[in-house]
Amino acid sequence: MSSRCPLLIASFLAPALRAHGELPPQEYEYGFQLYQEDDNRIRVEAEYLRARMELNPETAIRFQYLRDAVSGSSPTGALPGSAQPFLSPLEDVRRGILGAISRQFGDHRAEIEFSCSEEDDYVSRGIALTDTLELNQKNTTLRFGLNYLDDTVLVPGLGDRDKRTTDFFAGVSQLLDANTVLTANLTLGHAQGYLNDPYKLVQRTEFISLPDGSGGTIDVPVVKVYRENRPDSRFRQVLQLGARHYIEPADAAIDGILRLSHDSFGVFSQTVQVEWRQQIGKKFQAVPFVRYYHQNEADFFTNTIDAFPGTPSSNPNGSGPNYSADYRLSSFDSISGGLRLSYQITANFSATAAYERYVMDGTGGNSATSPDPAYPAADIWTFGIQAAF
Known about the structure:
By secondary structure, the chain is mainly β. It is about 5% helix and about 65% strand. The chain has a single domain (about 30-200, about 230-389), classed as Porin (Beta Barrel). It has 2 helices and 18 strands. Strands 1-2-3-4-5-6-7-8-9-12-13-14-15-16-17-18 form a 16-stranded antiparallel barrel. Strands 10-11 form a two-stranded antiparallel sheet. A hairpin with a 2-residue loop joins β4 and β5 (about 110-120).
């Protein structure tokens, strides 16, 4: 019965076509990914189910369901060896759905997408609009998009906080010849509201006076932690350039991507990625890849707020001095590499598998980086199966 499920779904969604004895083109994909950091830090088990169906030559629908289960422990922002815990346990499950419908209007293909995801302390609702325009006998493709997210963050002890994010996207793809394609994409994004991570802290050494037994006092250092205080708005700009060239003698293609990103937090990052797509026979493809990433620290990154004047707020709202000890806002390099494999089982079914090794290291000196134990290394395994009818 399971092998008939795609056909039954198609029959319900396209009764007009069923009446004529036809079924619309449709695609289904199931994937599972395991992300495991060394030393049993963070473990993420993620799975998704995707479907796409052409109701008619002009109209198509998409659907996606995802589930992420997170467990393990993550750096709090406190320094190792202090009186405060360096790692904090966590456990959560995120579930999300996405639905979209697209329609062809002449040379334009417009799509509207709705999404929603929920976890114990975070709810996200989104809408996205995109338009794809083909020109120059389909040798040039322009794409524009607008994405809006309305998020609610449950902050322990403080209740719900709101976050709004708007992204504008523009891209172009140009076919230079039969074997070469160039792409360029620009994204401008603005986020407003509660941008803190509610579980990240910053430590400060304070002194309390205690009697010394002889009529005087002695100052005793005490390490305390406070919630981080990021700005309540963030503007980011991302430029991505890509190229793909097919090498006929090798029956292979090489892909290259350069991504430059900057935001109002003061973080400037660069990503370089290279993939080699090697066809082996008619059914098998191997794709070794490597990716390098670097970023500088945010303007307000700090490991301690010992020099912070006054008492930090227990309910930070982005105003006043900003500070965060989150290692993800520090200066660091990361490199990852691995291998993706795909196999065409039959005319309708294919399978994929991938392994990736990821390593992150702090760079830029003590004031710009977190302690070495904060930076993770991880193994990433991915498996999937696809069906097309």
